[in-house]
Structure formats: structure tokens, C-alpha cells
Amino acid sequence: MAQFTLNFAHHAGEIQLEKTAFSLSPEIEYITVRGKTPGAYRGAGCFQWTPAVKAMCVLFIQALARSFDDAYIPEPTLFGGRGSLAASIDYAIDKGPLWLCDMFGLDMSGRTNLRSLILRTNSGNKRPGPVCLSLNESILSPENITVVVNAMPIHRKILLQAIIDILTNESLEFIGPPPLESGDSSISLTKQITEAKKRLLTNLSLGFIEPPPLESGESSISLTEQPTEDKAKKSLMSAISAMNPDPAPVLIKTTTLEMV
């Protein structure tokens, strides 16, 4: 069974992929690092932080997050029309850029192994409707996907979802407007983004605090030992205040989607 590890760096409200490790068997492992060259990682491949790489991250993290649900979800893991994250990774699979070959290796026909890891519907937008992508769990089980942020393995769904929210928010994808207030007929894009950023920062301040390990003889951890939203917000604001030399608020940047 295949194994895939994604290592991220999280700083100032942004999260970006730094390193990956993929293997179809214990004998061969493909390592890639972010950059134009492997640099200090001799023998590794490399990638840059493009929409296609971001889409690949969202797809695998979403598949892992869904594995925490008891009920089976038949819907695609990632979908979207032209210019979406789904379309971006779909295009990359067909084009087969070097970073994709470095990251997942090649099959016997010389095509990237990612082609067999992802199930696709309406590839290339050949007909009206979205491009739909799902993980091929017969080759890569979600349980064999590992997500690491700042050297810390992530094992909680709330954290995985926060990472997905950040990655999709950067490209203005999958963000629905907050509920309309009384008397409102519409909400500006600026307000949507502001509300999304608040939700993301709250999720991260809560989520990146892992619960302490159980001591011998303990069967559970009391609720008072868990971080509350109010405490997490205060902790987050203190951290931001400590960075006072830069008065700019910690925001999630928005970027314009480009193809591979």
C-alpha cells in the first residue's frame, strides 16, 4: 500500500508545503522539497508553490479529513470549473510537469503515478459541469496519508479542516458568504474575506494546541484542561501583539489562480 507524507510550514497565518515523501513500496521513496533546485537535499526532486501543488495538497488533506467521519461520503473530494483548484491539478496530471514526476515517480508507461492515485470525472472540462476528483483508496488509503505542520504530526480533523480553509481561502475557493444580517441584501467580498480570516485564526489558535497526553491511570482529560475559545483568542492576540514591530494585521493573502 502506498504512503504519502506532506510537510508544511505555518507562519503568520499562512501555510505552505515545504517537503513531501511518497512511496508505492518500501524499496523506493520519492522525496521532493520546495524550491527551484533540491539544494541541500541531494537526490531529491523539487517543486514550487503553484495552484496545482496547492490543489494537490487540498485533495489529499481532504481525503484524510473525511476518513474521520463514520458515514461514507460518495461525493468527489475536490471539484470545480475552469480556473479552479480541481481544474488546475487535473490539467497538471495530463501535462505531466517535472515536479509531478519527481513527487510521485513514473509508472511503466512513463506517466506520473499520480494518474493512478486520483479518480477523475469530466477531466479537461470536455463537457459542461465541474471537474471532479477523488482519491483512489484502493492504492492509497487515507490512513496512509500523513500531514505534518512545523514538525508536528496532525491527527485532529479540526486542524486538517483549518489547513484546507487556509489553502482554499488563498485562492478564494470554496468560501461561502457568512449568514446575512437582518436587513442585508448582500455582503461585500471584503467582508466575506474578513469573516473567513477570523474563522481561520480561531480554528488555528484552538486546533494547534494538542491535548496533553494521558497520565498513567487516567481514562480521560477534564474539560477544564482543554483550551477554550476565549483563552485561545487571548493567546493569539498576545502573540500578535508581541510582533508589534510590524503593525500590519496577520492576514491570509489572496492570490490569483494560474495554471501550472
Characteristic terms for this protein:
7 helices; alpha+beta; globular; 6-stranded mixed sheet; 33% helix; single chain; 260 residues
Mean pLDDT: 76
Strand content: 15-25%
N-to-C series of helices and strands: EEEEHEHHHEEEEHHH
Number of strands: 9
Q: How much helix, percentage-wise, in residues?
A: 25-40%
Bulk shape: globular
The number of domains is: 2
For the sheet with most strands, the description reads: 6 strands, mixed
Question: What's this, in brief?
Answer:
Helix content is 33%, strand content 19%.
Characterization of this structure:
The protein has 260 residues and is an alpha+beta fold. It has two domains: 3-149, no CATH class; 156-242, no CATH class. The protein is 33% helix and 19% strand. It is built from seven helices and nine strands; from the N terminus they run E-E-E-E-H-E-H-H-H-E-E-E-E-H-H-H. The chain has helices at residues 51-66, 85-95, 98-104, 114-117, 157-170, 189-207, 229-242, and strands spanning 3-11, 14-25, 28-34, 45-47, 78-80, 118-121, 131-135, 145-149, 152-153. Strands 4-3-2-1-8-9 form a six-stranded mixed beta sheet. Strands 5-7-6 form a three-stranded antiparallel beta sheet. It is globular and about 45 Å long. Residues 172-186, 206-213, 218-229, 232-237 and 243-259 have low confidence and may be disordered.
